[in-house]
Amino acid sequence: MAVPLRLAYLTVANTFAALRFLPMTDREKDTEILVLPDRRNGIAGPPHPAGGDTEAMTSSD
Fold first, then answer.
1. Phi-psi region for residue 8, left (φ > 0), alpha (ψ -120 to 50) or beta?
2. Which one of 15, 21, 43, 59 is least enclosed by Cβ atoms within 10 Å?
3. How far apart are the C-alpha atoms of 34 and 30, rounded to whole Å?
4. Where is this region: Disordered (predicted)?
């Protein structure tokens, strides 16, 4: 039941997002696309520490 509802919600949300671009000029569209954050990279979780200070997994994990 949850999957069809989520699919319907995403379809409606993406349709309204696409309709928002219709009255815009090409320059406005390009500017908005550049300003928007990249959602694909934010889903996976926080970034890894830069110094390599990650803990190694042990057999008890």
1. alpha
2. 59
3. 6
4. 37-61
Q: Do 54 and 48 touch, CB atoms closer than 8 A?
A: yes
Q: 25 CB contacts (<8 Å, ≥6 apart)?
A: none
pTM score, whole prediction: 0.39
CA end-to-end span of the chain: 34
User: What is the number of other CB atoms lying within 10 angstroms of the CB of residue 21?
Assistant: 11
pLDDT in tens, 26-54: 888 788 778 876 655 554 555 566 665 55
CA of residue 11 relative to chain centroid, distance:
15
Q: Which two tokens stand for residue 32?
A: 């908005």
